[in-house]
Design a protein that fits this description.
The mean pLDDT is 98. This protein has 324 residues and is α/β, with parallel strands linked by helices. The chain has a 7-stranded parallel β-sheet, with helices on both faces. It has a 5-stranded parallel β-sheet with strand order 2-1-3-4-5. The structure holds (2R)-2,3-dihydroxypropanoic acid (DGY).
C-alpha cells in the first residue's frame, strides 16, 4: 500500500500527476481545509501534507497527524504553520523559496503603477461613460522615474523589486534586519535606513517584503503612517497583518498618504469595510505569485520535498526544508 498525500486544494495538474505516480493522493475541495477542525479530522490518514497558506497548520493539527512525516507548504511564506510544533514531532517542513521571486516582483511594480497612474479609477470613469473629451488635467498621476522607493525586507523578492524599480529610474532605500552585501547595495545604488521611520519619511513609494512574525505584526501602524508624506503610496504583497488596516484606512480616508496597493489582508479573505471605500486604493485577492509557470513551479518544489522525505533522503539533500 503506497503512502498517502493530502493536497488541500486543487493545484496545477502536472503537480498532482507527479505525486500520483508514486502515492495515493487526495485533493481537497476549495476552502475545505481553511479551518482546523477539518484538518484535525482528516490528517491522521496521511503521511504527507501539501497545504496552502490559507490552511492553519496549528499545534493541534500537527499532533493529530500521527502518521505525518512532511508538510510542504504551497508558498514561500509559512506563517500558517507552527514549525516549532512540527519539528518537535519530527515532521519536516518545506516552503518554496526562489521560484516566485520574478512573478511577485513584477506584480509589485504593476501595483505601484496601478495606484500611481490611477488605472482602475480611470477605467471606471471610462466605463461610466464620463470620457467626453480629452482633459489635460484628467487623472494626473505620479511617475516612478525619479522618485524614491523604500523597501522593507530586502530578501529575494525585495531585491527583485529593487532591480526592476532601479531600471525604471527610481532611487532605492531599504530597511532589513541586516544590511545586504556591499555588492548588492552598489548594484542597486541603495541606501540603508536603520529605522522604518527614517525610510517612511524619505520614500515616495513603500513596498513591504518581510515575513509575518511577532516582530513584523502591525509594523506599519499609526506612528509610521504619520511620518509618510501626503503623496506616499504604500504597497503590500507580503502578509496582511504586517499593516494595521484600521490605521491605514484612516490615513487613506483622511488623505494623509497618497494611496495604497494591497494584495494581502489582515483577515483574509475578508476585506476591512473601510478599505473597500478608501480613495486611491487598489485591492487584489493575493495573486502576486499567480502566473501559470510560477504556480506550477511552486507545486513542483513542494512535491519534490514530499518525495524526498518519503523516499528517505537526508534533510541536507532537500534544499527547501525549513531549518529548526
Ligand atoms: C507566498 O508564497 O508566500 C505567496 O504569498 C503566495 O504565493
Amino acid at each position: 500500500m503506497s503512502e498517502r498525500v493530502l493536497v488541500t486544494e486543487p493545484i496545477i495538474p502536472e503537480v498532482i500527476e507527479k505525486l500520483e505516480n508514486q502515492y495515493q493522493v487526495d485533493v481537497g475541495k476549495s476552502g475545505t481545509y481553511d479551518n482546523e477542525e477539518a484538518l484535525i479530522n482528516d490528517i491522521p490518514a496521511y503521511d504527507a501534507l501539501l497545504p496552502m497558506l490559507s490552511n492553519p497548520i496549528s499545534e493541534d493539527v500537527i499532533t493529530a497527524g500521527t502518521n505525518l512525516k512532511v508538510i510542504a507548504n504551497h508558498a514561500v511564506g509559512y506563517n500558517n504553520i507552527n514549525v516549532k510544533a512540527a519539528i518537535k514531532e519530527d515532521i519536516a517542513v518545506a516552503n518554496t523559496p526562489g521560484v516566485l521571486t520574478d512573478s511577485c516582483a513584477e506584480f509589485t511594480i504593476g501595483l505601484m503603477l496601478a495606484v500611481s497612474r490611477r488605472l482602475f479609477d480611470a477605467q471606471e470613469y471610462l466605463l461610466d461613460g464620463k470620457f467626453e473629451n480629452w482633459e489635460p488635467l484628467g487623472f494626473l498621476g505620479t511617475e516612478l522615474n525619479g522618485n524614491t522607493l523604500g523597501i522593507i525586507g530586502m530578501g529575494r523578492i525585495g531585491t527583485g523589486v529593487a532591480r526592476r524599480a532601479k531600471a525604471l529610474g527610481m532611487n532605492i532605500c531599504y530597511h532589513n534586519r541586516s544590511r545586504v552585501s556591499p555588492e548588492i547595495e552598489q548594484e542597486l545604488n541603495a541606501s540603508y535606513c536603520s529605522s522604518i521611520k527614517e525610510l517612511a519619511s524619505q520614500s515616495n513609494f513603500i513596498s513591504l517584503h518581510c515575513p509575518l512574525t511577532d516582530d513584523t505584526h502591525h509594523l506599519i501602524d499609526h506612528e509610521i503612517l504619520d511620518v509618510m508624506n501626503s503623496n506616499t503610496i504604500l504597497i503590500n504583497t507580503s502578509r496582511g497583518p504586517v499593516v494595521d488596516e484600521e490605521a491605514l484606512a484612516h490615513a487613506l480616508h483622511n488623505k494623509t498618504i497618497g494611496g495604497a496597493g494591497l494584495d494581502v489582508f489582515e483577515d483574509e479573505p475578508k476585506l476591512h469595510p473601510k478599505l473597500k471605500t478608501a480613495p486611491n486604493c487598489v485591492l487584489t485577492p493575493h495573486i502576486a505569485s499567480a502566473s501559470y509557470q510560477t504556480r506550477k513551479d511552486i507545486g513542483l518544489l513542494a512535491a519534490d520535498a514530499i518525495i524526498g522525505i518519503l523516499e528517505g533522503k537526508s534533510h541536507s539533500e532537500i534544499p527547501n526544508l525549513i531549518q529548526p
